[in-house]
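Sample pair:
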Amino acid sequence: MSQKRSNINKAIYPVRIIGYLLAILSIIFHQYYIWNTISITAWIIIGIFLIYPHAALLISRKAQDHRESEFWVLSIDLFWIGWIGYLLDFNLMSALPFLLANSATAYSVGGIKAFVRAWGLWVLANLIILVFFPLPEKVMLMSADNVWAFIPSIIYLFAATHYIAFISFHRGNSILKVKKQLEEQNIELKEQKEELLVMNEEIKQQNEEIVSQRDHIDEQNKILENKNFIIEKANQEITSSINYAKRIQHAILPEIDTIRSFFPESFVLYKPRDIVSGDFYWITSKNYKIIIATVDCTGHGIPGALMSMIGNEILNDIIKSRNITEPDKILYQLRKGIIHTLRQEESNNQDGMDVAICAVDNFPDSYKEHLGESKLEYAGAGISLLYIQDNTLQEIKGDRIIIGGLKTYDSEQNFQKHS
C-alpha cells in the first residue's frame, strides 16, 4: 500500500520540475525586463526551486505516512507560488496560471483537505512577504507589458492541466479495471458461495445420513447386546449343564485308589479335550480276574460322552451281569450291544468305538499250585497293547474290526485273543 502512495509524487515529479523551471524563466524574464537585474531574493528563490522538487520526492518516499507527506508537498507548492507572485511584482497575468494549475493539482489529487491546506500556505507566504519584505516599487496586478514573463506561466498552465488530465484519465481507467476486477471477483465469490452452500447442504445431508446410520447402528448394537446377553446366558446354562454332565461322567469312572488296590504301581493319564469326553477307562474284578478296558468313542464333547455312557453300561452288563470275562468274547458282545442299542441295523448310524481289554488272573496264592502262574489275556479293536519285555518296548496290535457301525464284512468276525 505504501508503494502505491509514493507513486503520486513520482507521477507529478516531471510536471513539477517543468513548472519550477518555467517559474524560474518567468522570474528571470520579469526581473530583467523591469529592473534590468536579478535581486538576491530572486536568486535565493531560484536556488530553492532547483532543489525543492528533488528533495520533496525523497522526503515523501522516506516518510512513514506516505500519503500525508505527499499532500503536504502539493500544499507547499502553493507556498512557493506565493513567492513567485512576489518576485513577479504581484502580476496576476504571470502568477495566476501557476496558482491555478497547482491549486487544481492539489484538489484533484489530495481532495478538499489538500486544497484548503495549499491555499492556507499561499496566504501564509503572502503574509510573510508583506510583513518581512519591502513591497515592490511597481505593483503590476494586471499588466501584460512583459509577455516573456507571461509565456512560461501559460505554457505551465497548459502542460500542467493536460498532464493532470492525462493522469486522471489513466487513474480513471485503472479504477475501471479495478472495478471490473472487483466485479469479476464478486461474481466468482458469489459462485463460490453458491458452491459452498451446495456443499454445506450435501454435508448436512451426509451428517443426517450419518446420524441415521449411527442411530441404526446403536439400535443394532442394543439388539446385539440383548442377543449376546441371551447367548451368554444360554452359554452359561449349557456350560453349567455340561459341567454337571462332567460330574456324572467322572462318577462312573473308577477311582485311582480302586485301580491301585489291584495294581499298586499303576497310574492313569486322562486328559479330555473338552469338558466331557468320549474316552473312558473301566476296571472290575470278576471270577478271579481283573478286567481292564480303555475305550475311545467316536466324537468329542457331548456326543462322545453319550457314547461313553452307553459303552460303560454295556460293559457292566456283559461282565458283571452275564459273567463274560474273556477279552475276545467281551469285544464280540460289546459290538453286538452297540449295534443293538443304536439300532444300527435299522438306521444309517455308524457311531462306534475303539477298545482294548485286558484280563489278568487274580486267584489266591493257594491256587497257583494247581493253576500255575497268573497270566494276562488281551484283545483289541483298533487299540494296541504296549508292554516292556527285556527292557524293550513291545506292541501287540489290535484287530482292525469296528465296535459298532454296521458293515457286512466284519459284523460276524471274531476277535483274536492274545495271552
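Strands lie at 279-286, 289-297, 353-361, 376-381, 385-389, 392-396.
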